[in-house]
Design a protein that fits this description.
two-stranded antiparallel ribbon; 161 residues; mainly alpha; His-Me finger endonuclease fold; 5 helices; elongated
Length: 161
Amino acid sequence: MKTCTNKNCENINPQPDSNFHEAKHHKDGLTSQCKNCASRETRKRFKENPGRLKATRAKYYAENKGWLKDHSKNFRMKKIYGITLEQYNQMFVDQQGCCAICSRPQTEFKKNLAVDHNHETGKTRQLLCHYCNFILGASNESCERLKEAIRYLEKWNQGKK
């Protein structure tokens, strides 16, 4: 339990530690003002100087662009496929940067290779180009449907080479 140091705090009684942001440089590891007061102070500062927020964000993104991009990618990979960006990169190296089905290199595509996964189990398989990944998805991952599509193409492509 901790008391907020802001004189105008709505809650003068001690509050749970969860109402304070972490601050490693403070003895107790928490900020001196509660989250509500800190948020109110920040909004007040930006209201008094509207261009400050935009400038602050622009500077932050400029300084952390690469990190943010990788962090965001890593977060999505973990959330959607259960793998890290590092694991994706290793799969890419193992596949020599090529689609696991058509073997075309990623350099031939505008999009990155997609993480193919089993939609029922969620298990990650390999990296595919957008087109091969689409074919599997459009067929509902049905081997029989894909075999029928091959038979159809063979029927209509007889004599063509």
